Amino acid sequence: MKKIIIAAFLFAFTNNIKAQTYTIQSPHNIIKATFLLNKNGQPHYAVYFNTKEVIKSSSMGFALKETYSVKGIQSIKDNFLVSSIDSSLVNEIWQPVWGEVKNIKNNYRQYSIHLIEKTDLQRKLDIIFRVFDDGIGFRYAFPKQPNLKYFIIADELTQFNLTADHKTFWIPGDYDENEYAYTTSKLSQVDGWKLPILSNNPKQINEPDEYAVQTPLMMKTDEGLYINIHEAALVNYPSMQLHVDRNNFSLSGSLVPDALGNKGYLRAPAITPWRTIIISDKATGILASKLVLNLNEPSKIANTSWIKPMKFIGVWWEMQTGKSGWNYSDNPDSVNNKKELFPNHHHGANTANVKHYIDFAASNGIKGLLVEGWNTGWEEWFNNWYGGHFDFVTPNPDFDVKEISEYAKHKGIQMIMHNETSGDAATYERQMDTAFRFMNKFGYTSVKTGYVGNIIPRGEHHDGQWMINHYIHAAQKAAQYKVMIDMHEPVRPTGLSRTYPNWLACEAGRGNEWNAFSDGNQPEHETIMPFTRLIGGPMDYTPGIFKIKGYSNVAGRQVHTTLAKQLALYVTMYSPLQMAADLPENYKAHMDAFQFIKDVAVDWDDTKFLEAEPGDYITIARKAKNKNDWFIGSITDENARETKINLDFLDKGKKYMATIYADGKDADWKNNPMEYVIKKQTVDSKSVLLLKLAPGGGCAISLIPIAIGK
Has residue 24 been placed in a domain? Predict the structure, then answer.
């Protein structure tokens, strides 16, 4: 790793309460942050992009709840002095275990501003800024001190005061759910609506804020500036939502509470997550930013050789679409058969069916296989959504773990474990070692965890501090047993895959599965997700559905894309863990198109964001890890689109065979989604491709070097 750190400078200041302003420039003076203590000694910051104001002066600080050491609800937000400042310049290159690029540049200026109260308590608070050329991150730190030891956060008082009523891509604030479709509106039009009361507390103190939105929050100004607000390194702290002041175009941090309404429990010394603001005058600049990753700590796993990105298939989509079920009682031979409840189902996770999937994966170079519904407890769970039904090691009678594991090993397939906790995280923590030893015994290299339901302990929330610590504990425990992990129904990611690279992916958003059991995802959905949900880390989106219509008994239900767009998603929806989500028989009917899924990589040396506009279109090119193969994905919303793609990123002097998987002439996501064409042509770095995308469509391209002499 190449690293340059310029020695820190120390500035000391007298106890003068008058306003003090400090300026922090990014390494190439693109981003500027200012820090101010106003006349009341309250911290404020502002952010500029190329001298243009992006975040107006915004206040900072905390309200603390009464404890034995802090009497009464007290603010720690004003009456401060700057005691000293440490500053440094960091310029380093680091290599992720896996990712979109081989090398990541981490170049920023840091100011650590040390504050002390002008009171008898003399409480201390540090505010740390890191200013990059593509945005800023700032966090709070509570040093070890005699008058602030154990404390409870009542509120974080961080503001993001915007300059105007920006176009905003948002989902509503919710302590337990993030699988919403995105709304595009002016900030002032964020809906005022009340979510259901999710807490068991009769006082309803945990009612979500009716004007809150979740991060990552994507915005665009009328002048064409793109702004993304999120957080990084979310550890031992609740997730931050953003309360919208619709009249003043202001956002303020709103932390997810626990069952008592408390926002966080800390013990000094303590730090908060980074609050992140990514800024660019190009939409592609938001997608290319590595700011969130850079603000996380390096890998805590010393030996990462066992961490391998992969593609997988699964006994899953047939359950989502009603062909089979998770319950063993769906098995016709089960003595507990309840056919009246599931008249059209059979139990999907049976040995013969799993072997069928193993055979298909092995014959097509797909390395992983996920099986859901393999263990006991599903019958009880579907009748009682309050957890405690699974023990994570007991298979149903028709699922022979030993036989399946041996068969998969013989075929070169890695089995992926499924641990649905039904929200009973407390029970899962008690059984984690048992569950992971079971995985090791039977050769499971990866696990998909699930948290559907109300969190146990009662009153905790999916995005609260208790569960934030649980997710990290699960990743740490998986690493202890050399197991890769994919979490479903967790908090939105905040770049912790750098620190725990076995944490390959998670859901934390509205995935492809919603096309199976609801009105689905509208064509613009996948053009918004990379600017929002994916800013913090990869998503297990489960692309690759080939049977666009006719998979459901519900009239009119379908996937809201063309088949070609499903292929393009393997490039535009980044993940090191990519599922070929459809059924083997649906792929066998279109093996020419399935070739792209077989060929496309999941780990990359380079990525080029060629064009993008949130809510409209995205085109991305990626170079496969340790190869010269390139893959392009281009997608559009409900509008047809033509675009020219310059291939000047290819190696000069080399010829490539381009295989283009495109929408057919009359393709349309709604009326004719299955029409596609595949064509080949020789290209080089001087070539320009004209892509025609159907409404709700896309295009996928593989670019493979042509060997000399061929």
Answer: yes
